[in-house]
Specification:
The complex is a heterodimer of chains A (about 400) and B (about 100). Chain A is an alpha/beta fold. Chain A contains 13 helices and 15 strands. Helix content of chain A is about 35%, strand content about 20%. Classes of the chains: A alpha/beta (about 400), B mainly alpha (about 100).
Chain lengths: ~400, ~100
């Protein structure tokens, strides 16, 4: 089996663009959660989300922009950053050996929302000509391949909140098995359209607005947590066969070394301790490492009533006494829940945590839930040099639990 | 405004093309408008000319092809606008040139 290096990181997030900016903001304790100032905000029960000030016209010419849903715009910009960051020159590469694996939960939801608005709201009998091409779930991955002439596997994974962890894990497997040399792997999500926000609102899983500070509305592991806050953005990593990366002197962020996948198969939304624990165990097994070698966990930590105690119990089940010694943070309090992009963004955060030797905090955690009794690095970042192995958890509606492990190369 | 002028107006609004290059003989491909671009253009043409472009898969190669197609659609779908001389408001069919 081949080894896999992470050689580039691209980020479009509510905390800014680029891995460095994103991570600096995380460590500084900044929150990207804010009140939405949109035409439909008044009709939202909770007009709170982690939005980004991204404007497509700053990146794309008008004819192309008209073909790109916001989700594909994010994905293309994050991909370009990752390629630049990895100093990956594709012109001279064997394009058949370079592929794309993108996760997205809802795909081109903005386009469908606008389309339905025209049909049902405005009473028009016409939809925009590119509606299908913009809304199709694989649009982002396809655009990446077209823009960079990548003829390798072009894959889209949609497993709700674990989509991009699955995309990265499956891309890792492709390189390990020698089926590709490089994979651009990550996720993108653009869920802040009226229809999508209302759909999430209907599920009654969104956080209520913090009465004192809207930016503090998402409170993972906290006694007064009330739900998740949606976020938008994308993260794309360059995964590269390790020897190849070394040969060309590529930047070495990490070795991606473990991937566990385990399905709850019990309930669409209710997580299980056994399911989350087994996904972590399988990731440890695939990395062939013992639990006590894990130095940091970026938790799924949604801030929902259901997830946080279950995830805490699952971590204890897998790590035993070591669970109390591992620093754990949920960065969702800062960047929101990016759904299909969450796993990729949080793996990027985990890898940067290891590289920089600083653990980003779990924000707004003043009073933990008694059932959540681990070290969640509350409120402030913590210096922690010498981190060698990090784990990123992604658990999903639908039950697809995915866990990734990276270590110092 | 002639059909060509109206079409020029649409094209320069939506594509990075110079108005001088939009002649009847200009090939759409050379204006960077591919088959998907033409699909998109039909949407704007419907808005601009008030016609409905049917799903008849007509081959469009030049700007002139588009102009002729638009005129044809207008003649069929909007006869009173397009040929005021031929079909009067009264609904009677007149000989061309006889309506005041």
């Amino acid at each position: 089996m081949k080894k896999v290096a992470v050689t580039g990181i691209g980020v479009v997030s509510p905390l800014g663009r680029g891995g460095q900016v994103f991570f600096d903001q995380l460590v500084a304790g900044k929150s990207g959660v804010r009140r939405l100032d949109l035409a439909f905000s008044e009709r939202l029960a909770v007009p709170i989300a982690a939005s980004t000030d991204f404007r497509g016209e700053n990146y794309f010419e008008a004819p192309k922009l008209r073909m790109l849903d916001r989700v594909s715009q994010f994905a293309l910009v994050a991909t370009q950053q990752a390629i630049d960051d990895a100093r990956l020159s594709i012109v001279r590469e064997d394009k058949q050996r370079i592929g794309v694996a993108i996760g997205t939960g809802m795909g081109g939801a903005h386009t469908m929302d606008e389309g339905y608005s025209m049909l049902y709201g405005a009473g028009s009998d016409r939809l925009k000509p590119f509606t299908v091409l913009m809304a199709m779930v694989n649009a982002a991955a396809s655009w990446i391949a077209n823009e960079h002439a990548l003829a390798g596997p072009n894959l889209t994974y949609s497993t709700a909140c674990s989509s991009s962890a699955v995309a990265i894990g499956e891309a890792w497997l492709k390189i390990r098995r020698g089926e590709a040399d490089v994979m651009l792997a990550g996720g993108s999500e653009a869920p802040l359209s009226f229809g999508t926000l209302k759909a999430w609102e209907a599920l009654r899983t969104l956080a209520i607005e913090d009465p004192h500070d809207p930016a503090a509305s998402c409170k993972p592991f906290s006694a007064n947590r009330s739900g998740l806050v949606l976020g938008e953005g994308a993260a794309v990593l360059v995964l590269e066969e390790l020897e190849r990366a070394l040969e060309r002197g590529a930047p070495m962020y990490a070795e991606l070394c473990g991937y566990g996948l385990y399905t709850d198969c019990a309930h669409l939304t209710r997580p299980t301790i056994a399911g989350q624990a087994q996904a972590m165990r399988l990731a440890l097994d695939s990395a062939d490492i013992a639990p006590d070698t894990v130095d940091y966990i970026n938790a799924h930590g949604t801030g929902t009533l259901a997830n946080d105690p279950v995830e805490t119990a699952a971590i204890k089940e897998v790590f035993g006494r070591h669970a109390f010694e591992i620093p754990i943070s949920s960065t969702k309090a800062a960047h929101g829940h990016l759904l299909g992009a969450a796993g990729a963004l949080e793996l990027a955060a985990s890898i940067l945590t290891m590289r920089k030797g600083v653990i980003p905090p779990t924000l707004h955690l003043h009073k933990p839930d008694p059932e959540c009794d681990l070290d969640y690095v509350p409120l402030n970042a913590r210096k922690y040099p010498g981190l060698r192995t990090v784990m990123s958890n992604s658990f999903a509606f639908g039950g697809t639990n995915a866990v990734l492990i990276a270590r110092s190369p | 405004m002639t059909t060509l002028e109206s079409l020029q107006k649409i094209l320069i609004a939506h594509y990075p093309v110079q108005i001088e290059s939009i002649t009847r003989d200009a090939e759409l491909q050379q204006l960077d408008i591919d088959s998907l671009g033409i699909m998109e253009l039909f949407f704007a043409i419907e808005d601009e000319f008030g016609v409905s472009v049917p799903n008849d898969k007509r081959d469009m190669r030049t700007v002139g092809d588009l102009v002729d197609y638009i005129d044809e659609l207008r003649a069929v779908q909007l006869p009173q606008q397009n040929m005021p001389a031929a079909i009067g408001q009264q609904g009677t069919v007149n000989t061309p040139g006889t309506t005041p």
